[in-house]
């Protein structure tokens, strides 16, 4: 193993102070991270970071801390990030669909995260009730938060789109998109990119449009004719998302994705999938054969990884393990859907 250079300021006196601070303000599990955070702050000074850079880093860290602190009590509850136009009026079909979807999914124990604005976001918070969050962006032309967000407890105001987008991905387990403008497409393509590249864990991505409307169907035509036929994405990437035309179908897509599948953990060489119940070795052998293009060897029942034991990470759940190529993430999503059919 190569010897890694310690992350330090290079000033023995300062490094000693940082060591003492890290020891006093951390647990054994978090000490190295706290140490490196303190070190980075001093290095910014050593680098002569200008006031604008420090302003950006300072606000970013504050916003992320606030986001993490707000969501921390609800980490064990699965959540849906929901996007759509803030311009949709209350009588619009998509508004009514978003309200119905959020009511249905909240009744199944999920929580809902929106951008906190009007239109589709308002409808989602209305439907979700106390199970709704809002991560609101501060804009020059200030838009009021919708009246269905619980102030203080589940409302987060942020300055930067990138911290907001991080919250939508990190704190959610599914993404549902209703018709919208640039922002909706920004969020949609971001989550598709993260799913395609494995930078986000597998999740259902659902596009919803009212019956008879062609918003997402027109979008899909661009995807198939422009991206798939142009060989900018692979045909299998089409399976990363689903287009539906009812709130019930959208809710069912999210619920079905987690019917048997619980979560995933990537080890250095082994991928672990946690399940709601064990699967037969016969069914695992069938899946191993079907997904041999992304898996080396067999899918087997497994215990937790050492890091899972150390972190006490859902140790009660049954698991399967396999050697995943870490490239075929659209195929991995298909595998998860097949798991849920067992």
TrEMBL record:
Sample GO molecular function, one term: hydrolase activity
Gene Ontology cellular component terms for the protein in this record: cytosol
A Pfam family of this chain: Lysine_decarbox
Taxonomic superkingdom: Bacteria
GO terms (BP aspect): cytokinin biosynthetic process
Family matches, as NCBIfam families: Rossman fold protein, TIGR00730 family
Name recorded for this polypeptide: TIGR00730 family Rossman fold protein
């Amino acid at each position: 193993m190569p010897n890694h250079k310690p992350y330090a300021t290079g000033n023995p006196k300062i490094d000693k102070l940082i060591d003492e601070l890290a020891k006093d303000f951390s647990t054994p599990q978090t000490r190295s991270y706290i140490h490196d955070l303190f070190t980075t702050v001093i290095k910014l000074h050593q680098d002569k970071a200008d006031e604008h850079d420090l302003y950006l880093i300072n606000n970013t860290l504050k916003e992320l801390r606030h986001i993490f602190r707000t969501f921390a009590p609800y980490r064990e509850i699965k959540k849906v990030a929901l996007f759509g136009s803030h311009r949709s009026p209350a009588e619009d079909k998509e508004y009514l669909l978003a309200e119905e979807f959020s009511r249905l999914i909240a009744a199944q124990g999920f929580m809902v995260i929106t951008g906190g604005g009007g239109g589709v976001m308002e409808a989602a918070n209305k439907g979700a009730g106390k199970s709704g969050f809002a991560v609101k962006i501060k804009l020059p032309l200030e838009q009021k938060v919708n009246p269905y967000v619980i102030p203080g407890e589940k409302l987060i105001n942020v300055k930067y789109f990138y911290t907001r987008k991080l919250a939508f991905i990190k704190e959610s387990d599914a993404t549902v998109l209703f018709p919208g403008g640039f922002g909706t497409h920004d969020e949609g393509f971001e989550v598709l990119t993260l799913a395609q590249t494995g930078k986000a864990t597998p999740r259902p991505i659902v596009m919803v449009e009212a019956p008879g409307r062609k918003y997402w169907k027109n979008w899909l035509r661009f995807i198939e004719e422009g991206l798939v036929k142009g060989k900018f994405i692979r045909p299998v990437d089409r399976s990363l998302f689903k287009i539906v035309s009812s709130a019930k179908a959208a809710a069912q897509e999210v619920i079905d994705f987690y019917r048997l599948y619980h979560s995933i953990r990537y080890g250095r060489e082994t991928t672990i999938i946690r399940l709601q119940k064990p699967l037969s070795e016969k069914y695992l052998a069938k899946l191993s054969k079907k997904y041999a293009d992304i898996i080396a060897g067999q899918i087997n029942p497994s215990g937790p990884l050492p890091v899972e034991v150390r972190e006490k990470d859902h140790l009660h759940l049954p698991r399967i393990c396999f050697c995943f190529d870490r490239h075929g993430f659209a195929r991995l999503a298909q595998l998860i859907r097949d798991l849920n059919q067992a």
